[in-house]
Amino acid sequence: MILFALPLKLSYDWARLFQALAPIGLPGASASKRLLLIGSPGRRGGGDASYKRRRQEAELRSPARTGGVVALRSEAEGSGGEAGLCPSLTMSGGLEIMEAQRLWEPDSKRNTSMDRFRAAVTAAYGIRLANYSELYQWSVQHYSDFWAEFWKFSGIAYSRLYDEVIDPSKGITDVPEWFKGSRLNYAENLLKHEENDKIALYAAREGKEEIEKVTFDDLRHQVAFYAAAMRKLGVQPGDRVVGYLPNSIHAVEAMLAAASIGAIWSATSPDFGINGVLDRFSQIQPKLIFSVEAVVYNGKRHNHLDKLQRVVKGLPDLKKVVVIPYVSSRESIDISRIPNSVFLEDFLGMGQGDQAPQLEFEQLPFSHPLFIMYSSGTTGAPKCMVHSAGGTLIQHLKEHILHGNMSSNDVIIYYTTTGWMMWNWLVSALAVGASVVLYDGSPLVPSPNVLWDLVDRVGITILGTGAKWLAVLEEKNLKPRETHNLQTLHTILSTGSPLKSQSYEYVYQHIKSSVLLGSISGGTDIISCFMGHNVTIPVYKGEIQARNLAMAVEAWNEQGEPVWGENGELVCTKPIPCQPTHFWNDENRSKYRKAYFSRFPGVWAHGDYCKINPQTGGIIMLGRSDGTLNPSGVRFGSSEIYNIVEAFEEVSDSLCVPQYNKDGEERVVLFLKMATNHEFSPDLVKRIREAIRVALSARHVPSIILETEGIPYTISGKKVEVAVKQIIAGKEVAKRDIFSNPETLNLYSNIPELQGF
Predict the structure, then answer these.
(1) pLDDT, tens digit, for every residue of 698-721?
(2) Closest by Cα among 461, 595, 459, 458 to 524
(3) Cα(427)–Cα(25) distance, rounded to whole angstroms?
(4) pLDDT tens-digit series, residues 373-425
(5) Mean pLDDT of 338-348
(6) pTM value?
C-alpha cells in the first residue's frame, strides 16, 4: 500500500493533481478510482470494532489535530484497518476535498479570554494545548474538568459551592444533574456589575426617535420594585410568570424580577395570535402575565388589548394581568373588560412600603427551573422545554466570554423578539457587564438602515440578526460601509437559518471587511449554541467556524457512524448543562425521549442536517433533517439548493420540499419567489437546473420548478418546509398562528402541476 501526505490547500488544479499522482503509481490516479482519507468510518472496514472504540479513535485523529495534513490511500488497496475520523471524499474527477475560502483572520497579538482560559487549563492540568482545536478535544473528552475550570474562570456569583460537577456514570440520555449542591441566582449574576452609572440597557423602537437608557443601578432598583410586587401577590419559587411583550425594558425587568424570586419566566411576542399564545401558556398555568396595549410595526399601530382579553379568558389560573402603557398614555387606555387587570404603575405600588424595597436573590439549586421555552408547534402542540438557571447561565457565559471575547466594554444588539431564545441569550450578556440594546419594530422601517443607524448612534460593537435579514439587504443592494461609520462594530452574528455563502461575501465587501462574521447554530432546545463564532480562528466562506467547547457534536450517517466531509445528522454524544431538565407535563419523559433520543440510542439527535469540513473543522448547515430530501437514494439538505438558487438575481426567495406518491417514491419540488422587476421563465428554469447539476449532481436537480408569490416563515424568521410538505400531500396545517405570513400557506394547495404523481 502506498501512503503519502498531502497538505490541504484552499484550491486545487485537479488535472495537475492527478498527473502528479500517476507517476508514483497511486491507484487513485485513475479517474475511475477514488481516494480515501485514512480511517474512513462507516465505509468499508471498521470490521468488528465496536462503535465506542471507533468514536474514541475518531476524536483523537481529528483532522483539526493534524495541522491540516491528511494521509490518502486508495480504496482499491482495501481499508480494513482501524476506523478514524475522516470519510471518503469523492468528486467526478475521482477526488473531492472541501475547498475553503478564508475571509477573516484573528489578530495573533490579541490576548483573548479564550487564550487566557486555555493557559489556565494548561497550568491547572499540566498539559499542552497549543490551539483551539486541542482545547476543544480536551473539553469534550474531559467535560467535567472543563466545566469545573470554567466555573472558576467565569466568576459566577454563588452562595454555596458545588459538591460535584456531574456523576461520571451518567450519559446525555440520563439528563444528569449538574453542579449538585451549589446555590446561586441567575438574576443576581446579571445584576452584579459594579459600575452603577454604566448603561445596562438601551431601548429603541420603531416610530420613536428617542433611545431610552437604563443604568445598572436603575435596573436593580426597578427589578426590586417588580419583585416586591410579585411577592405581595404571592409569587413563589416555581410559579410561572409570563410576558406577552415586545422587546422592551419592561420585559427584561419583569424577567429578572421573576428570576430573583425563583419563579419561572416564559414569553411570547405580540405578533403571536391568540391560539398560538394559548397553545403555549395554557399548558404551564401562569399566575401572572405582563402585556401592552399596542405595538408599532412596519409603520402601523397594532392594537393589542382585544387579543390580550381573549388570551386572559383562556388562562383561569391568572391572579393578575399587568398592562403596560407602551404606545399610548394611560389615560387613553381602557382595561375594564380584562378581569384582574391593573396598570403597571399600580402593580409596582403594591410592593412599596415606607421605604423602597430591597432587592433579594433567592438562593436556588443549579438545576432550578428558570425559563420555559417552546417548540415551533408546526406538527402538534408545542413542547414546553424547561431550562435550568445554572445551565442557562454557565452556557451563555461560555459563549459570551470565551467564544465571543465579550467584556464590559461591549455594546450588543440582537434583532429578536421576546419569544425567540436569542432574546434570553442577548439579555445574559448583562452578566459580563456588557450594555444590551433592545430594538422593537421592523428592521426595514423607516429604512433598511435602521440597525446600522443604531450601530453609529449607540456605538454597538456586536450586532446579531437572522440570516434572512442579511439576504434582504443584499437584495436591496444596500452598502452600509459607504453610508455609515461602523467604527465600533467588530462582530456580526447570524442565526435562525443557514447563512448563505453569498451573504458572507456581501458582509465583507459591502458592510465591513474587518468584522468577524459569526454564523451560530443551536436552538431553543438547548437555549444556546452547539457551534458558532470564535475569536481565535479564521472565518471561512459558507462555514460556521467551529464546534463550541464541551459540545461533543458530530455528523452521523444513517448507520449511526460519524462522517466527515459528508452530509449527516447533527448529534451530541455527551452530557451538556444546557439541555432541558425536563418537558412540562411529561412525567414519564416519553415526549423528551421521542424528541431527542429516538433517532440514535444513547445520543442527542438535534434534528439538523450538516456537514463538517475535515480541512477547517468548520460546519456547513444543510437545514432541518425533517426536511431532508432523498430522491433516488441521494440524501441532501434543502440549504444546498437554496445556496445555488438564491444566488440568481432573478430569485428573491425559494422553498424546496419533497413530494411522495402512493408507492412512496419521492421527487423534489422547488418553488421560486421572483425578485422585483424579474419574471419567471423557461430560460430561468433551464439555467437553475444546469447550475444545480454542475454544482451538485444530476440527482439533485428538482423534478419540478414552479413560481410562488410567497414563502411561509415562522414568527422567529425560519423558513417552513414541513408545513408545505404536508399541504402538497393533501394534509391540513392546523397551527397557523405560529407563522408570520400564514396567508402564504394557501398558495400551496391544489397546485395542478403537482397532481397525479
Answers:
(1) 888 999 999 999 999 988 788 889
(2) 595
(3) 60
(4) 998 776 678 899 999 999 999 999 999 999 999 999 999 999 999 999 999 99
(5) 98
(6) 0.81
Instruction: Dump the DSSP string for 666-735.
Output: EEEEEEEEEPTT----HHHHHHHHHHHHHHT-GGGS-SEEEE-S---BBTTS-B--HHHHHHHTT-----
Angle at 575 between CA 390 and CA 128, to 5 degrees: 95
Backbone angles phi, psi at 144, to 5 degrees: -65, -45
The three three-digit cell numbers of residue 554, written as one number: 458530530
- 285-309 burial by CB neighbour count: b if 16+ within 10 A, else e? ebbbbbbbbbbbbeeeeeebbebbb
Are 492 and 517 contacting, i.e. CB atoms less than 8 angstroms apart?
yes
CA pair distance 88, 41, nearest whole angstrom: 9
DSSP output for 607-634: EEEEEE-TTT--EEEEEEGGG-B-GGG-
Alpha carbon distance 256, 233 (integer Å): 17
Q: Are 527 and 424 in contact (CB under 8 A)?
A: yes
What is the pLDDT, as a whole number, of residue 732? 84
Which grid coordinates belong to 236? 413563589
Instruction: Compute CA distances 725 → 514, 669, 722, whole Å.
Output: 41, 10, 5
Determine the pLDDT at residue 379. 62
DSSP state, residue 425: H
Contact predicate 219/187, CB 8 Å: no
Predicted pLDDT of residue 287: 99
DSSP state of 403: I
Task: Please give the mean pLDDT across all residues of the chain.
Answer: 87
Statement: residue 635 has pLDDT above 90: no
**Where is pLDDT greater, at 198 or 558?**
198
What pLDDT shows up at residue 450? 98
- Taking every pair of C-alpha atoms in the chain, what is the biggest distance, in angstroms? 92
> From CA 153, how far away is CA 394, in angstroms rounded?
11
Look up residue 17 and give its amino acid.
L
d(CA 544, CA 228): 44
Helix (H, G, I), strand (E, B) or coil at 591: helix
Of 201, 292, 276, the C-alpha closest to 243 is 292
3-state secondary structure (DSSP) of residue 188? helix
Q: Per residue in 254-297, pLDDT tens? A: 999 999 999 999 999 999 889 889 999 999 999 999 999 999 99
CB neighbours of 419 closer than 8 A, spacing ≥ 6?
A: 267, 268, 269, 272, 374, 715, 716
Stretch 731-757: mean pLDDT: 88
Cell of 706: 414552479
The grid coordinates listed for 595 are 424528541
DSSP run (H or E) holding 119: helix 113-125
Angle made by CA atoms 545, 565, 664, in degrees to the nearest 5:
115
